[in-house]
Amino acid sequence: MRTLVLIARTLVCLLVLAPLAACARPDEPLPFGARSQDCATCHVDQAEAFSGSAHARSDASPVLAALIPRATARWGAAAGNFCARCHTPSHAAMTGDPDAEVTITCVTCHAAIGNRGERDGLLLVDPSAPLGGPFDDPEPTPAHASRAAPLVASSSLCGTCHEVTGPSVFVEATLSEHRVSVSDPSDPSCASCHLPRLEDGPIALGAEASRQRRDHRFVGIDPPWGASAEQRTDAARESAALVARALALELTVADGEALVRVTNVGARHAVPTGVSFLRDVWIDVELVAADGASEHLPRVITLGDQPMRAGEPVALITDADAVERHRLDAGQSAEVRVEVPPGAHVIATLRARAFRADVLDALELGSRADEVPVLEVARLEE
């Protein structure tokens, strides 16, 4: 059956590309548009994976929609522009297509030609240029002109949006954290974790060259708002696995005391990162006595920056005048010691959530809380 599907896809591709082969020219690299669905004509697997990503829905987050008017009210109209540059970049619409997506699309990365700074969404995109990929020998195609583009595989591209310098206390320092934490002079890019490698093979229907392929789901912690139930389940599983590779949970019980420790062993940036003032990572401990009675100790360790105003915690960054930093830099640990009653069994559970519950409540999004799953990252018993 899979063979028949692949044959059918190939036939569709050939039928679409046949009339293009005669008219496509290097100065017309996108003869059939710049929408993601256009790219999906031949890059089937990549487009399908991308469709279930948070990037493909960069404009659909209700958290974003609820924060923008608050940011504008607090810091002025320019504050909304910071959000728009990354979440609604309109790169596909630059081709003049009135139906093009106003969100992150394939051309956002593959038509990027540089940036005006590694921050604040200052990305330079030219859909009229040949499309770029991370290969030194781009394969000719009748669909569009191609070029070698090291930028596509670089942390500089990702950092253009994942480094935000304001307004005010609204700061994301993921690229800076990455640059500090990476000691390898080859500078492993963000793709090594967030676009994990797949089996090598052709990257498009009808292509012959075997390429290094990557998973275009852009694995992160943000939920893919509006995705199908299957896509949300897959995303949650991948998110939990990503955090599990980043954080190592340890539990040692001795002499009536439990040592609970969590260490950033795998992330090449702080954890949590990005909008860390929205994130929630924590460890719960349960003490189970020999008779089955249990005592729950919630949040013996909590990670995630805390917005503050006049020295008091607040839910939203738009209400804050300062931020308390509660993250683990690469290689850093946090630990706590818990008294254990004689004969008690100890269970430590590491959990994570994209958005804190108090944030969702403050943004009046409690009704959509079920779309923000609590991820069980690790569980240890002693």
Low-confidence stretches: 1-27
Spatial separation of the terminal alpha carbons: 48 Å
- Structural class comes to alpha+beta
What general form does the structure show?
Answer: globular
Number of helices: 11
The total tally of domains equals 2
Strand order of the largest sheet: 10-9-15-16
Strand content: 15-25%
Order of helices and strands: HHHHHHEEEEHEEHHHEEEEEEEEEHE
Oligomer: single chain
Question: How are the SSEs placed, and which strands pair?
Answer:
Elements: H1 2-21, H2 36-39, H3 44-51, H4 62-75, H5 77-87, H6 106-110, E1 112-115, E2 123-125, E3 131-133, E4 146-148, H7 155-159, E5 163-165, E6 171-173, H8 174-181, H9 191-194, H10 229-246, E7 247-254, E8 257-264, E9 280-288, E10 294-303, E11 306-309, E12 312-313, E13 322-324, E14 333-339, E15 345-353, H11 357-362, E16 375-381
Parallel strand pairs: 3-4
Antiparallel strand pairs: 1-2, 5-6, 7-8, 8-14, 9-10, 9-15, 11-12, 11-13, 15-16
Helix pairs in contact: 4-5
